[in-house]
Amino acid sequence: MTTREYDIIIVGGGLLGCATAYQLAKRKAGNILLLEANEIASQASARAACLLTRARTKPALMELVQETYDCIAEIEQLLGESLELQQCGSVTIASSEASLKEVEALEAAAGRFGIPNERISRERTKELLPWMEVSAVDVALYMPTDAFIDSALLCSGYARAARALGVELRSGCKVKRIVAEGDAVTGVELADGTVLHAPLVVNAAGSWANLLMRPLQVGLPFTPVRSHFWITGIDKERFPVNHPFTVIPDARAFTRSDVGALIIGLRESQCQSFDPSTLTDKLEDFDFNQAAKWQVLDEGAPLLKRYLPDIDDLGIAHYMAGPSCYVPDAKFIIGPVKRYSGLYTVTGCCGGGVAAGGGMGRLAAELMLHEEPFVDPALFVPERFGEVDPFSAEFQKRCADARSNKKGG
Amino acid sequence: MKRYIVFLKQVPLSTKVEMDEQTKTLKRSSALCQTNPDDLHALQMAVTLKRSTGAEVVAVSMGPASADAVLRETLQRGADRAVLLSSRAFAGSDTWCTSLVLAAAVRRIGEYDLLFFGRMAIDGDTAQVGPEVAAHLDIPQLTWLASVDGVADGRLRAVKLAGRVRQQVEVSLPCALMVGRENCALEAPTLSGWRWAQQQEVECWGEDELGLSPDEVGLYASPTRVVTTEVPQREKEMVWLADAPALAAVLRDAMQFQNK
Ligand SMILES: Cc1cc2nc3c(=O)[nH]c(=O)nc-3n(C[C@H](O)[C@H](O)[C@H](O)COP(=O)(O)OP(=O)(O)OC[C@H]3O[C@@H](n4cnc5c(N)ncnc54)[C@H](O)[C@@H]3O)c2cc1C
Q: Shortest CA distance to A359 belongs to which of A14, A11, A16?
């Protein structure tokens, strides 16, 4: 078998693997190979609702999201093409004491970070969101610089920028296992038996990351949890193209414009986790439970009705379900895996890999290259929960609860 | 009473189907299923027509118990009544046996004006079942449909394609229509439709209800024998064109060939 030496091998060509590849290449980290079992940008990263929500109550998260916005501008410059960021703004709606507190916290965080924001009247809310029944709105917080972006386009943007900077990308190339000698990783073995050597290996295999860790007896503290959204039929008057996206905590919902239709995201009270060992190689073959399409909408509709009164009779043209990798504390997993030298991971996206991916990739790259990290890496240490068994039902439930209890967008 | 009967089939979500090497039938073990896309357009056409004629729309599917999902979807999308044709005896039926079962179901349902079929199922690609049912029932059939203009005075007016020619046709009722995706756009289903569909009863008929004997249908009664299957290999000749004049020459030749 032919072998080749690399400085770094990245497993996974989704947003997190590609963003890491880009950030490493930008730092001239050497000879880098990215391996993707399917096509680049074809799995979770092709299923997102694509919100790039800037304001977060955790300051480190805002830094990570800002880095994504910076990456987009840099990559557009580098590739000489637009990644079609849609700066539509966002409106967060409060209709209860509890959600008002959340909005106030966001407002304060945005203020500290310099993110433009203003409370708007019901009239202005109606202007921006013609579909919304505004009598239910107590407070509306408008953030005009929030945006969304086609996640697959962003992912392929990172990948193409990485390639332009010298990274070798291989799709259709599944890694069978990460190879370790003693307590150091030495490379990866491909499905066809080829072994590729590198002193640094990054596991960015998304929902599949724990399948690669299992033979190494490492458990990363996350599990795939179903995220989903519904898309209405087109009605450009009611759902104007690129009107602001909304976050409505009291309805456990978000909405986004989609070329004249409305994307509606809902979180069920008990989110559904999946045992990673049941995953198929491609998400298109995986059963996210097709019945959930209507069952979850049925569960969520009564709360949403206050804002979208005709939800029961609105035509639903499409449904999209996919896995997000949830961690019990709803924070990402980024950094070295202590048990093996040379093994790194960037995963546990908690439904935020589009917004935070650029920053997650940057932090991973800085840690690998021993540069000063731009945010506190302690928040994202893989071992922060001690030893976990991601294949146990009990742990999977803990992760699902992190999504069930999620507040923001 | 005016009545339209629509036939729908559950097919794998992925078009990658596996062949059972021994029986040479398609393996339908894939857990993920959908309603055959053309069939949904057939249903839509029936439901749209019903709005002007007041007909009852009956949806029929032959398949395993899981085809109940297909029928609930038809109720959500506007069908009034749903019938599942399900029996071990039907398993492995080819298009001939399937059409026998469907024709028997039509007879049991009773009077009808129009039968709606999707043009073709994405797992078998035969486009035979609809025409065969029409033949069993000895009624006219409309294939290569372009559009339906209306039903009046016991006749259906429609446009049909014959190569590049569009034919306006009038067909006496009852008749069968083979509907494709381009014939009508789907309306998006609603949550209230789903709620209603969950409360309806789906009737289930086997060979007894249809008056068929088990040895008339199923794998062993099916006359079709699949001897081998292979994926056609297309060989393409490729030539690199060096410059714009070379491209222009190729286009000129192609246009001359077209105009001959
Ligand atoms: C419905 C939905 C809505 C979402 N909405 C948003 C949103 O609005 N905003 C936001 O920020 N985020 C959102 N997300 C989350 C976002 O999609 C994810 O955070 C992001 O896609 C994660 O990227 P990833 O690289 O970890 O995963 P993936 O894109 O799944 O990439 C992992 C890759 O690894 C590959 N792989 C796995 N095993 C191997 C192997 N052994 N060898 C080689 N390759 C392998 C896989 O094929 C895959 O391509 C949403 C997610 C879903 C499902």
A: A16
